[in-house]
Design brief:
Elements lengths: L16 H17 L10 H12 L15 H10 L6 H9 L7 E7 L4 E6 L1 H8 L11 H4 L3 H8 L3 E3 L13 E8 L6 E9 L6 H28 L13 E3 L7 E4 L2 E4 L2 H15 L6 H8 L6 H15 L4 E2 L4 E2 L4 E2 H10 L3 H6 L12 H21 L2 H8 L8 H10 L7 H16 L1
Parallel strand pairs: 6-11
Antiparallel strand pairs: 1-2, 1-5, 3-4, 4-5, 6-7, 7-8, 9-10
Helix pairs in contact: 4-8, 10-11, 12-14, 15-16, 16-17
Length: 437
C-alpha cells in the first residue's frame, strides 16, 4: 500500500463537505481555546503551521498582510532579484495557461514578499482585496498558514487547501507552492506559487509547480555557466550615492561616504544630525541656534564654533558649509528612511529599519526632540495598524517598556489562545500595579 504524501492537501483530488467541516471546527478550537484537534482532523504539517501562526500573534480575522514595496522601490528590487532572468520560464510553463486554468501565479523572494503576481485577471482583481499583490509580504509569521509562506518556512513544496489557511479571509482560496534554490550555491531565492479554487489543491498542480521549479533551477545553472564562461564582468559604472548618516540605536553616529565609513564622536554626531534635520526643512543654522540645540545649559557659541570647525575638517568642507552652517550636498539619514516608509504606510518595513532610538546617550535638546518625534510617529503607526505582530515587535523595544496603552492594545489584538497573551497580560498588570503604588 502506497503511503500518502503529507504535503498533499487533497490526495483524492477533491474536498468533501465533511472534511471542510472538520477543518473549520479544528481551527475554531485552536484559535478560541488553544486546544489541539483530533489527530485525524488536520494534517500535521498544517497543525504545526497553525501553532507557529498563533505563536507569532497572527490574527485569524485581522488586517491583510503588509505591502512592503511600492512603485519605484518594487521595480528596482524586482530588477535586481536573481529570479528576474528566469521569469520567462515561469511564464511559459505556468502563466500562459493560467487564465484558462483559473489560476494566479505568484513568485516571491526568500522573505515571502510577492515579486510578480500574474495570471487570471478576474481572480487577481479578487485577490487584491486580501493584499495578494506584488510588494506584499506573505511570510508565515505575518500572513499565517499559506502555501508560499509555509513552503519557505519549511523549505519544502506544500499545498494548502482552503480551510487549512490560518487566516479566515484566505480560506476561500487554495494554493500550491515550492521553494526555489540557486542550483550552485544552494541559497534559498524564493518560492513559486499557484493560487485559485479547490482544484489548485489537487496533486497534479503541485507536480506542475515542482516541475516548473526544476526548470527554473536548470535555467539558473545554465546562466551561471554562461556567466563563468564569459569571465569577470566589467565593473558597472559607479553611481554617485549620497553619504549616509546612521543614528538609530547607535551611541555614536556612523557616516558612510564614498571614501568609506567614519565613526563620529557624540558631539559631532549631534551636530551633523541637527544640520541634516535642518536641511530636511530647507534651512541652515547659526552658531547660536546650534548651541541651543546641542546644550541644555547656556554654552558659549565659541565652543560650538570650534566643534564645527573640527567637524568640517573631518567630513570635508564640501559637505558642511558655514555662514550659516548648513549641508552643501545631499545627506541621507537612516531616520529619513524610516520616515519615508511610514509616509507610505509600510509600518512593518519601518520597524525593520528601526534598531532603536536616535542617539540614545545624547541629552542635546535638538536630538532629544528628534528622538521623541520618531518614536511617537512609529508608536502611532503601530497602534493604528492593530496588527499583533507589529505590536509585539514594538513592545520589545525600550520605548514601549512602560507604555500601558501599547501593552493594552497588544493584548486586545492577540487572538484568543495565543501563547503570548499570558506574558503580555502579566506585564500589563505589573504596569498598572506600579501606577497605583
Amino acid at each position: 500500500m502506497t503511503a500518502v504524501s503529507p504535503w498533499l492537501a487533497l490526495p483524492g483530488g477533491r474536498p468533501s463537505p465533511a472534511h471542510t467541516r472538520r477543518l473549520r471546527a479544528a481551527h475554531e478550537t485552536l484559535v478560541t481555546r488553544g486546544s489541539p484537534p483530533p489527530r485525524s482532523a488536520v494534517r500535521e504539517v498544517v497543525w504545526d503551521s497553525w501553532r507557529r501562526s498563533l505563536g507569532s500573534g497572527v490574527d485569524p480575522d485581522g488586517q491583510h498582510p503588509p505591502v512592503d514595496l511600492l512603485d519605484d522601490d518594487l521595480a528596482a528590487y524586482r530588477a535586481a532579484h536573481p529570479l528576474a532572468p528566469v521569469l520567462p520560464v515561469i511564464r511559459r510553463l505556468l502563466v500562459e495557461d493560467a487564465e484558462a486554468d483559473r489560476m494566479i501565479v505568484a513568485v516571491t523572494d526568500a522573505e515571502g514578499r510577492m515579486l510578480w503576481v500574474e495570471g487570471d485577471r478576474r481572480l487577481r482583481t479578487l485577490a487584491e482585496g486580501m493584499h495578494f499583490v506584488a510588494g506584499a509580504r506573505w511570510s508565515e509569521e505575518v500572513a499565517g498558514t499559506n502555501a508560499p509562506g509555509t513552503a519557505l518556512a519549511l523549505d519544502h513544496p506544500v499545498q494548502i487547501y482552503g480551510s487549512e489557511h490560518y487566516r479566515r479571509p484566505v480560506q476561500p482560496w487554495s494554493c500550491s507552492a515550492a521553494p526555489v534554490h540557486h542550483p550552485v550555491t544552494g541559497v534559498l531565492l524564493g518560492a513559486i506559487d499557484v493560487t485559485g479554487g479547490d482544484h489548485v489543491a489537487s496533486p497534479h498542480v503541485l507536480t506542475l509547480v515542482r516541475a516548473t521549479v526544476a526548470a527554473v533551477e536548470s535555467e539558473l545553472r545554465w546562466l551561471h555557466r554562461e556567466e563563468e564562461a564569459r569571465g569577470p564582468a566589467r565593473p558597472a559604472p559607479v553611481r554617485a550615492t549620497a553619504p549616509l548618516l546612521e543614528v538609530l540605536g547607535r551611541e555614536r553616529a556612523r557616516l558612510t561616504t564614498p571614501r568609506g565609513p567614519l565613526e563620529l564622536s557624540l558631539r559631532h554626531s549631534e551636530l551633523l544630525l541637527l544640520l541634516a534635520e535642518a536641511a530636511a526643512a530647507g534651512e541652515g543654522r547659526t552658531t547660536e541656534q546650534l548651541a541651543a540645540e546641542c546644550h541644555a545649559a547656556d554654552t558659549a557659541a565659541v565652543t560650538v564654533r570650534a566643534e564645527l570647525s573640527r567637524l568640517r575638517r573631518l567630513v570635508g568642507a564640501d559637505l558642511v558649509g558655514s555662514r550659516p552652517y548648513r549641508l552643501l550636498g545631499p545627506l541621507e539619514t537612516d531616520l529619513d528612511r524610516v520616515r519615508a516608509l511610514l509616509d507610505r504606510g509600510a509600518v512593518g518595513a519601518a520597524l525593520d529599519r528601526y534598531p532603536g532610538p536616535v542617539l540614545p546617550r545624547s541629552c542635546a535638546p535638538g536630538v532629544v526632540a528628534a528622538r521623541r518625534r520618531t518614536a511617537a510617529a512609529l508608536r502611532s503607526a503601530v497602534l493604528r495598524s492593530r496588527r499583533p505582530e507589529l505590536l509585539l515587535r514594538w513592545t520589545a523595544l525600550p520605548e514601549a517598556r512602560d507604555d500601558v496603552a501599547v501593552w493594552q492594545a497588544c493584548l486586545e489584538a492577540l487572538p484568543a489562545g495565543s501563547p503570548r497573551r499570558g506574558a503580555v497580560a502579566g506585564h500589563l498588570l505589573s504596569l498598572r500595579r506600579g501606577a497605583r503604588a
